[in-house]
Amino acid sequence: MNHTQQGVDRENWFLACQAEDVPHNGGVCVKRGDEQIALFYFARTNQWYASQNLCPHRHQMALSRGMTGSVGPDQQPKVACPFHKKTFSLNSGKCLSGEDYQIKVYPVKVEDGNVYIGYQPLSNTEPVETQQFAAIS
Amino acid sequence: MKRIIVVGNGMVGYKFCEKMIAKAPAGSYHITVLGEEPRPAYDRVHLTSYINGTTAEALTMASLSWYKEAGIDLHLGDPVLKIDRAAKTVVTQSGLQIPYDILIMATGSAAMVPPIHGVEKKGVFVYRTIDDLDKIMAYAKGVKKAAVLGGGLLGLEAAKAMVDIGIDRTYVIEFAPKLMPRQLDDAGGAVLRSKLSALGLKVHTRKHTYQVLGKEQITGIQFVDESELSVDMLVISTGINARDELAKDAGLPTGPRGGIVVDDYMRTEDPAIYAIGECAAHNGMIYGLVAPGYDMAEVACTHIIADPLQGAKNERTFTGFDMSTKLKLIGVDVASFGDPFLTADKAQHVIYEDKVNGVYKRLNVSLDGKYLLGGVMVGEASQYNNLLQYYKNSMPLPGALDSLVFAATEGDKPQGAGISALPDGALICSCEGVTKAAICQAVKDGNESIDDIKACTKAGTGCGGCVPMLKDLAAMTLKTMGKEVRKDICEHFTYSRQQLYDLIKLEGLSSFEEVLEKHGTGDGCEVCKPVISSILASTFNEMILRKNNDTAQDSNDRFLANIQKGGSYSVVPRIAGGEITPDKLLVIATVAKKYNLYTKITGGQRIDMFGAHLSDLPLIWKELIDAGFESGHAYGKSLRTVKSCVGSTWCRFGLHDSVSFAIQIENRYKGLRTPHKIKSAVSGCIRECAEAQSKDFGIIATEKGWNLYVCGNGGSKPQHALLLAQDLDSETCIRYIDRFLMYYIKTADPLTRTATWLNKLEGGIDYLKKVVIEDCLGKCHEWETEMQQVLSHYECEWKAAIEDPSIRKRFAHFVNAPDQKDPTMEFVEMRTQKRVAEWQ
User: Fold this and answer.
1) Which of A92, A107, B700, B721 lies in the 20 to 30 Å Cα band around B65?
2) Confidence band for B234, pLDDT divided at 50, 70 and 90
3) What is the DSSP pairing of strand B607-612 with strand B639-644?
4) Which pLDDT belongs to residue B839?
């Protein structure tokens, strides 16, 4: 199926991969130019999420390899970095492990088995370094 | 609405506010606090820590916003100048005139300065407030020699501060013949003196200071005996004087040794005025500790709130306070409780004195030998809490007293009996006045964690000394409720690991999704996923990446390799028993060169190759497997290595062939997944070169066979393995290991090593022997069969992974550019090999 067909606004979305390329309840890393984006599929709820691949804690390109899960009564989706198990909300990008980190999260849509990620982050946040600095000062 | 004015914003004044806010019906009182110091109430008990960098903020009892939210008007740096009892108003320095219905005097105390000539000279300080400390620290720059006047509690605290500031030489000057004359007997004082001297403090007792020498600035001090001591600084910390001057001016009676006279409800002569804390004199006593001050705040608070119209007689009174105390002075434990001075006609003495190590203990026991009346401990005081409870609650003493005098040695079971024997009224937290009954009730009400108990009862929030007792009480209470401490693995499963193990086995569930569907909620998380994956692997031993179970594995298991700094992986092939042929060494060398890997010998007698790109892993393993290697499971919570010494085949001391047995054992249990990693070793004789006694199970050759040791580990809390069985033949040894491992797999909590598991196992090693050797549970045959079955499903995970295209394709960094490696990975050279660039 051709991914440039109607319904997909080519201005704001890019084709990441095929839905079947992504494991159930886990993530993959998508390359877009020099950028690395982690893409997750929650099979139980049939939901897709995307975030920056860089874990802001130790600056590791690793979030796509992290374990996914949910937290709280509203079952907020999250991912745990494989390095030190810092967890991040995939809705807001907020760090859930009690620190002030913030990651960018992106919109995802699936059409005809193609997965598209939105260019503009959902969480309108400053770059990671600025965030950290702000937290210290 | 009644208007309350609190004069003074120290620890006790603050505590009064806190208790009023918590207890009084909302909107019934309005509180105004007038403080002399420029900052809100702070923790004076831990004032010394200010010198070590604890900030004034960190010492603050509650932030300004707390007062605001509580609706309290806080005026700082504005001392009260006058109380007009007739008009019921106070006037402050800034000219405020504020009316009150109830006035709380919480003015505290000031440092007592003895009548010495020249105390106004530069370089003479008192030790009382943060401001005092700021001044001392500013002056101390360049000071080489300092003297502290006062060898009591406060003086020694100040001496510690001098040491912490970094002053070369500190003298302690005490008027009495010994240190801490109010708390210690002569022998205790002497031991403390020798310990402090060994730490570099110069102690002078029986010294009556006459004057401060120097023109404008101190150059030394002179004593009444005309001897002199040259010092650059003097800190006076000889005691306290109650701040009762305001009350005196207002015509309120004060005690003979100062302090505003109060009754058992903390009321002064004027029923509208209360006094609490160090400014109050109750039965002529001034209490210079925080715990009685808090108790006074509680008493005043309940008395104010109790509605006199309903005739409710308030039961809460202040009846004096036990001045028992335990503290660490410059690294030396000192404790004193009850009456430490009782003479031989009033008490029998139990005395322990160790001059070599500087330990002194004295217990005063009633003449009939039944009760504890007081005591002193210097140098070691770990039994203080226990002894204090015997004393305070008049509990009959056990027959042998040595267990009371000496700390339980390591390996002894913790004594729970002491706690359960305490009466309900026993005061556990003296700072906040919380009883055993209150703590147990809080636990019964559902506050099962220490944090919850602290939040609910405030116990343990003061000095923190009672926290170990809180833990024991919580565990004990939960147990008497027929409730184990809840062991739910996480929010998604209301089951312990053991319960989940049984469910999975019983129902034959084979994937994380199935288990979540049937027994869990939500999407799972990074805690329950690895636990359940581990149980599934322990039970069925299916290749862990099949059936979509790959994303339910812990991160390292998912890629069958250990993630390292920078995001590369390490590769560890199995080298059973540490035995390897030159040809296989060549293979490792070739592969490592080809993929540019850093190589290192591991602690487990094998070779680790670091720095592999994710997408290279299947290629690397293909070559290793073609050459006869298998996965080493270095990434899994599973059997790692069975280390061996060279054994009887080469060694002139060796009794048996430890290498062959180690290889046999390693190959038997390879791939077995367990609650945590397990390590093993086989030594060919008692010289123990393989260090088997530090392993989860270790085997040592004897003349007659093998000795089997279990539940040892290295790591952060090393623990020696314990002897399970002696002189076994190889077959029996393996059978016992089967049983031991199955029992461990079935019952351990997540991520619990065998050592910790055994420590928690009721009955310890003796019970484990009954289970494994005598089969007291009647399960051994079943376990051996299960083990056989699990082991029979072994396959090399890496072989399976590279042969399955759907699994193999997961080993790519970019899903949309599988041929490209992560460009952010950086390596630098070190000792001719590569290493990862340091993380930011």
Assistant:
1) A92
2) very high
3) unpaired
4) 59
B818 close to B809: Cβ distance less than 8 angstroms: yes
Q: What angle do CA B75, B78, B79 make, to 5 degrees?
A: 120
What confidence score (pLDDT) does residue B412 get? 43
Distances (CA, A) of B478 to B438, B439, B467, B618: 14, 12, 17, 51
Task: Choose the final residue of a domain: B310, B326, B348.
Answer: B310
How far is the alpha carbon of B625 from chain A, nearest alpha carbon, in Å? Answer: 25
Together in a domain, B228 and B283: no
Cα B299 to Cα A79: distance, rounded to the nearest angstrom:
51
Q: Nearest-CA neighbor of B622 among B802, B766, B365?
A: B802
Local structure of B763: helix, strand or coil: coil
Q: Which amino acid is at B216?
A: E
Residue B535 lies in a domain: yes
Question: pLDDT, tens digit, for every residue of B622-631?
Answer: 999 999 999 9
Contact B780, B736 (CB under 8 A): no
- The count of domains in chain B is 6
**Chain B residues 475-504 with CB within 8 Å of chain A:** 491-492
Res B485: pLDDT? 64
- Alpha helices (H) in B636-699, listed in sequence order: 658-669
Same domain, B246 and B97: yes
Which residue is listed with tokens 């949309």?
B816
- Closest to B237 (Cα-Cα) out of B334, B125, B117: B125
Maximum pairwise Cα distance, chain A: 51
**Residue B26 is encoded by which pair of tokens?**
């909302």
ipTM metric: 0.85
Domain boundaries, position A109: 13-136
Share of chain B above pLDDT 70, in %: 96
Contact assessment for residue B268 and residue B262, using Cβ atoms and an 8 Å cutoff: yes
Q: Give me the sign of the Cα torsion angle B816, B820, B824, B825.
A: positive
Burial pattern B526-546, b for ≥16 Cβ within 10 A else e, equals: bbbbbbbbbbbbbbebbbbbe
| Per-residue pLDDT tens digits for B289-311 | 888 999 999 999 989 988 655 55
Predicted local distance difference test score (pLDDT) of residue B484: 62
Å between A6 CA and nearest CA of chain B:
22
Tokens standing for B445? 């009400």
Q: What is the pLDDT of residues B551-570, one digit of tens each?
A: 999 999 999 999 999 999 99
Interface of B with A in 558-617 (CB under 8 A): 558-559, 563, 565-567
Say yes or no to pLDDT of B327 above 70.
Answer: yes
With contact defined as beta carbons under 8 Å apart, do B364 and B358 qualify?
no
Q: Can you tell me the distance from the alpha carbon of B37 to that of B10, in angstroms, rounded to the nearest whole number? A: 9
Tokens of A34: 């020099």
Residues near A96 by beta carbon (within 8 Å), at least 6 away in sequence: A71, A78, A87, A88, A89
Exposure string (b/e) for B444-477, b if CB count within 10 Å is 16 or more? Answer: eeebbeeeebbebbbbbebbeebbebbebbbbbb
Q: CA neighbours within 13 Å on the CB side: how many for B422? A: 28
Contact criterion met (CB below 8 Å) for A47 and A40: no
Decide: residue B429, CB within 10 A, 0-12 exposed, 13-18 middle, 19+ buried: buried
Which CATH number belongs to the domain containing residue A51 in this structure?
2.102.10.10
Q: How far is B55 from chain A (nearest CA, A)?
A: 16
The minimal CB distance from A44 to the residues B523, B822, B839 is found for B523
Is B733 annotated in some ligand binding site? no
Is there a contact between A24 and B524 if contact means CB atoms under 8 Å apart? no
- Spell out the alpha helix ranges (H) of B508-628: 512-519, 528-540, 555-558, 582-594, 617-626
Instruction: Tell whether residue B711 is among the known ligand binding residues.
Output: no
Q: What range does the domain containing B514 cover?
A: 497-553
* CATH number of residue B36's parent domain: 3.50.50.60
